Amino acid sequence: MNILKTFSKNKTLPARYSDMTTTEMELRIKEIKKMLGNKLFLPAHHYQKDEVVQFADGTGDSLQLAKISALNKEADFIVFCGVHFMAETADMLSSVNQIVILPDLKAGCSMADMANIHQTERAWDELNKIFGDTILPLTYVNSTAEIKAFCGKNGGATVTSSNAKEMVSWAFEQKERLLFLPDQHLGRNTAYALGIPLQDMAIWDPIKNELIFEGSDIEQIKVILWKGHCSVHEKFTVNQIQDFRQNYSDYKIIVHPECTHEVVSASDLNGSTHYIIETIKHAAKGTKWAVGTEMNLVNRLAQQFSDKKIVSLNPNLCPCLTMNRIDLPHLLWSLENIIDGKLENIIKVDDETKKYAVMALNRMM
Fold first, then answer.
1. What is this structure's pTM?
2. DSSP letters of 257-288?
3. What is the arrangement of strands in the sheet containing 177-181, beginning at the earlier edge strand?
4. Would you call the peptide bond into 182 cis, given omega within 30 degrees of 0 as the criterion?
5. I need a surface site. Which of 28, 154, 194, 239 has the fewest CB within 10 A?
6. Alpha-carbon distance 176 to 213, whole Å?
């Protein structure tokens, strides 16, 4: 959905919620959850605030949440505590009779917004003029339903940070080249880990509508990276790692592959949100970790695994701002709307888009 259209449909939160105390809101949410019982399913992403996560019926990364939402056939309402593209995926994978609600339509994703369908179709036309029918499109699940559908329609698939290596390997079994949307860093880090040299990668700039390539032979290009990024993970730098190692040499540094190639190369370990959680969970007591990912998750890991020392690689980093638009007032408002029969912020993907987007998801799953 066009982001401006999405914002225009977003209703202003009633003023009375600003007059309620945190305790009042928490008690009311508990009351409504008890009233709705199995009719309600409330998934929450790992990056959500603790004030929201405490009410979650399940937590996980974006695809984990979509899968567990799809497995829940009892709930009439799925109140998705994440961002817009995640709620879209939940809608596409859930049953027809289930209603997916996003508490705040402004909870978007800056990375997903860096690739719209018009830019993508234009890029595809230009790239096919250059390379012919030798390219397969892959999109990170952190993308709109329309981009997923584009990949499904053109023989491609979705990927997650957990299975990116498997999916990139699969893509090269289908075609000579791949177009990786919308996160250039995950695409670059994955391809490099599979042995593809950096000089065989190019960047597609959707604003300038041009291919950026430093080599002399354009035929050597194997990976075309969309010029997009995560606004949170791109804030981690090699200088931060160098400073950390100089001052705290006994810490292991673990980062998300949405970080730049330089940061991933300089870290000790890198992997998906699930990988980071599991690595720290199973690490020996007393070990020390500097984590390069979203701040809410890092703080939660530090609380959950207090037998280890866990800090952020960048302690001055802000949490994901769009993810944090889901808060107690918006969550309570969404639940009270259900009770009152006044449903707002329903996420519904049209049938044509859903058909091809699910095709892309199924090729991965």
1. 0.90
2. TTS-HHHHHHSSEE--HHHHHHHHHTSPTT-E
3. 157-159, 135-140, 177-181, 223-226, 201-205, 210-212
4. yes
5. 239
6. 17
Backbone angles phi, psi at 226, to 5 degrees: -70, 140
Beta strands in the chain, from DSSP E residues, in sequence order: 40-41, 43-45, 58-60, 77-79, 99-101, 135-140, 157-159, 177-181, 201-205, 210-212, 223-226, 252-255, 269-270, 288-292, 309-312
Q: How many helices (H) and strands (E) does the chain have?
A: 15, 15
Q: Encoding tokens for residue 119?
A: 């830019």
> Which domains, and CATH codes, for the chain?
3-108+322-349 (3.40.50.10800), 112-226 (3.40.50.10800), 233-312 (3.40.50.10800)
Classify residue 37 as left (phi > 0), alpha (psi -120 to 50) or beta.
left
Amino acid identity for residue 359 in this structure: M
pLDDT in tens, 63-116: 788 778 788 889 999 999 999 999 999 999 998 899 999 999 998 888 999 999
Burial 149-163 (b: 16+ CB within 10 A, else e): bbbbbbbbbbbbbbb
Give CA 223 to chain center in angstroms.
21
- Distance between CA atoms of 190 and 168, rounded to whole angstroms? 8
Rounded percentage of the chain residues whose pLDDT exceeds 70: 97
